[in-house]
Write a structure and sequence with these properties.
Keywords: Disulfide bond, Glycoprotein, Growth factor, Secreted, Signal. The chain is α+β, with helices and mostly antiparallel strands. It has five helices and 17 strands. It starts with a strand and ends with a strand.
């Protein structure tokens, strides 16, 4: 999770510039545990003729004098990024009533111009926070799911009017008709229904298209999610496809209802639908995304994004 600065200001003392930073950490989710927090400041050394030796940069916490020194470190300005571990003071800021993290950077006056300290730009100082979910979110707390729904509503109208959508819908109708015809022929050859609803097996042909997991590669740009998901650009989500036919294999973990529904489908295939081949176990992925407040957030284990197992329900 990246948190941009809310306030920044300068003060001068004995040839050193103190640049004060204030981060608003109130948006950090209450169901997350901060594992690591890092201050990141871009270094702008392009087009600079003057070569600097490594200089000492002091980082302080607090907003009242005397400030608490966090760390003094030598920094080579040829690098593109100044970073500092601020995990402890970040955690303390979360526990305060104001939810403000105050830091100060002290560096030589001639050197501090190399640091991109303007909080009004995307390249300004930021906090990078690595967190872990410690409790299950409710739907109203799941900002990512809400963002997905809004993107879907924005994307669907345009897609439905496109030639690609019309062609896909026509193909889908033909495909469903073909599958329905194949299924009806399979039902007639697989079972002979006798009086009183008893079933005896006729000449069984090999079951086609059993319930299984198959690859489904998701490209976020193709579904407009790249507007707010930064990384990964794509991932393997998998999908469940195929039919739940009787007898169902144990690895499909059918529920009692799915077994009964499958038997009823065998008796009355036109009145009772098959049990559905659906995901029964899902796995998380890690994503870097932009939330509603424009904050870049890293989610280590965003749940329910990958199909791990398929079954009959």
């Amino acid at each position: 999770m990246k948190i941009s600065t809310a306030v920044s200001s300068n003060s001068k003392n004995k040839g050193y510039i103190f640049h004060h930073l204030a981060f608003n950490v109130s948006h950090f989710p209450k169901w997350e545990k901060a594992l690591f927090a890092q201050l990141r400041i871009q270094v702008n050394n392009q087009g600079r003729n003057k070569i600097f030796d490594s200089k000492r940069i002091d980082t302080y916490s607090g907003m009242e004098n005397p400030l608490d020194l966090l760390k003094s470190k030598l920094f080579n300005p040829s690098k593109e990024l100044f970073t500092l571990n601020v995990s402890k003071v970040f955690q303390k800021a979360l526990e305060t009533e104001t939810k403000q993290l105050h830091l100060a950077i002290s560096a030589p006056e001639a050197f501090i111009d190399l640091l991109t300290l303007d909080d009004g730009t995307p390249e300004g100082p930021q906090l990078l926070v690595l967190s872990q979910t410690i409790e299950k979110q409710t739907n109203d707390e799941d900002h990512i799911l809400g963002r997905m729904r809004r993107t879907l509503l924005e994307k669907v109208p345009d897609f439905l009017d496109s030639p690609e959508s019309q062609e896909l819908a026509s193909w889908g109708r033909r495909q469903r008709r073909s599958e329905d015809e194949d299924e009806e022929a399979e039902e007639q050859s697989n079972y002979i229904v006798e009086e009183l609803g008893r079933i005896r097996k006729g000449k069984l042909k090999r079951k086609k298209n059993p319930c299984r997991r198959k690859p489904m590669h998701v490209n976020f740009a193709a579904i407009n999610y790249d507007q707010w998901i930064i990384a990964p650009p794509s991932y393997e989500a998998f999908e469940c496809t195929g039919k739940c036919s009787f007898p169902m294999s144990a690895h499909l973990a059918p529920t009692k209802h799915a077994i009964i529904q499958t038997l009823m489908h065998s008796l009355e295939p036109k009145q009772v639908a098959r049990a559905c081949c659906v995901p029964i176990k899902l796995a998380p992925i890690s994503i870097l995304y932009v939330d509603d407040d424009g904050t870049v957030t890293y989610k280590y284990d965003y749940e329910d994004m990958v199909v791990a197992e398929c079954g009959c329900r």
